[in-house]
Amino acid sequence: MAIAFEKYVRITSGVVGNVGVRQRELILRIFTECPFISPDEALEFTDLNNIRDFFGMDSEEYRRAQFYFAWVSKQATRAKKISFARFAPEGTNPAVYGGGSTKTLTALQISGTLSITLGDTTYPDEVVNLTAAASFADAAAILQTAIQDIDEALEDATVSYDATTRRFALSVMGGGNQKISIVDSALSRALEWTPETGASFITGSDARDAAQTVSESAELSNNFASFLFVTPLSDDDHQAIAAWNDAQNVKFIYVMRAIGKTTAQNAFNTLSGYAGCAVTLAPVSAEFPEMAPAIVLAATDYTRRNSTCNYMFQQFNLTPSVDKTSDSDMFDAVRCNYYGVTQTAGQLLAFYQRGILMGGSSAPTDMNTYVNEIWLKDFAGSQIMALLLSLQKVSANERGRAQLINILLPCVDMALFNGAISVGKPLIPTQKAFITEETGDPDAWRQVQDKGFWLNCTILTEVTDDGRTEYYAQYILIYSKDDVIRRVEGSHELI
Fold it and tell me: Which of 21, 178, 284, 421 is the S-S candidate for 452 at Cβ 3.0 to 4.6 Å?
């Protein structure tokens, strides 16, 4: 025996400085009235087959996802994930939608127990005998009677069977804003009313308009960068959503469709002052050209060299909607994008045009500029949060200032690498004057022009509402955005 060595020397091991903060994935979120999605969740899919099984092959959700995943960029990249969330303008009842696999009546003709949890209450087991059920509809009727007999709170419950989706559905009318679940049993598995069998459990909710829906969904999970609504919305709804999106300050793109010239003009009149709204002409009901900017964004890999791109000149499997210069000029004037076609030597060339957004004079109206800033803000934010979580402290002094600058410089380097920051772009006099005024450095504009950026960080104080003094860091990154060419003019001078 011996005295423990740790009495004299004690060494503690641990991996440090490895706290990671997840970046948002720049994917599309589709808001749909599909009843299989609970209003308090956001579903993410990476496999088209899973989307087909969940929504059905004939659903608009599946057809949109098919278009989304099929596109391949000029760098041979494609979108890897898509998100869906519930739009419930009339509210929802607590409900269960069973799995949609193929069922046989024989497998369902059993007697078993069923126990339902609604909110904080789990009701006693109810024995349900389906051995005499003559059809799936008959089984649903027997289930409904049995569930209604469990308790007064369930007396307005309904059970139905949908032959198209092959799902048994339970809805509790008047169930309030409560969660619902089914206790696992042989009967619940036969009905596919368990998570393992693909059931969807819908939480009751009040009616929500479109702007409330997207706001609450973003609070639940902001792991998306663009969004759209499957349901046609009113001009008031579009404006409310656009106002919310504008207030997020270059965080999401709201993509929407215009059916024709009148709706394009209405959209411009209503939304022109709100940043981040992408309106696209979409006269063919079975096609989804409004998804083009969301698809390009989701397919962009910002970890690759020169991966940022021009959203114009992108080709899709779409029917061109504009083939006349006069129409092209009209839609350009109201910032309505479109899938247009030109020709040379008899060859028709169709591509997305013109890659522009709504927004006021200070808003990024080029799609490529806007989405690059979405990525850069998120990347910088995740790196700063990782620093704050990893270190014991970030001091309100020169050391803390240096730590923040050092964590931001790799973000700038990545932006230079992927092309989000442009090097060598000539600056006009007003831009030079602004940079000088903002930085207090007469040579700062030269750095922005020659190196692409200027970065600084200062430590400041503020007095809180309760009278305390708090310290905070404020950094300024001025960078030269990556502009893109939309036309080429030439002059051939023969001597």
Answer: 421
Say if pTM beats, i.e. exceeds, 0.85. yes
Span 167-177, pLDDT tens digits: 999 999 988 89
Cα Dmax for the chain? 102
Confidence of residue 5 (pLDDT cuts 50, 70, 90): low
Q: Give the pLDDT confidence score for residue 79 in this predicted structure.
A: 97
* Mean pLDDT for the chain overall: 94
Q: Treating both helix axes as pointing N-terminal to C-terminal, what angle do 398-418 and 367-390 enclose, rounded to 10 degrees?
A: 140
> What gap in Å lies between CA 422 and CA 415, rounded to an integer?
9
Model pLDDT for residues 227-278, shown as the tens digit of each residue? 999 999 999 999 999 999 999 999 999 999 999 999 999 999 999 999 999 9
Q: Can the peptide bond before residue 354 be classed as cis, meaning omega within 30 degrees of 0?
A: yes
Instruction: Please check whether residue 257 is in contact with residue 325, taking contact to mean a CB–CB distance below 8 angstroms.
Output: no
Give the contacts of 308 (CB within 8 A, at least 6 positions apart): 300, 302, 368, 372, 418, 419, 420, 482
Q: Which two tokens stand for residue 404?
A: 């923040």
What are the phi and psi torsion angles at 373 (to 5°)?
-70, -35
Q: Report whether 85 contacts 41 (CB < 8 A).
A: yes
Query: What is the Cα–Cα distance from 378 to 223, expressed in whole angstroms?
Result: 11
CA 219 to each of CA 40, 248, 276: distance values in angstroms, whole numbers, following the listed order = 10, 12, 19
Q: Give the start-to-end residue ranges of the domains of the chain.
A: 28-88+207-351, 95-202, 391-479
Q: What are phi and psi for residue 433, nearest 5 degrees?
A: -65, -40
Average pLDDT in the 279-285 region? 96
By DSSP bridging, strand 28-32 and strand 121-122 are unpaired
Nearest residue to 449 via CA among 469, 421, 470: 421
Residue 348 tokens read as 């028709």
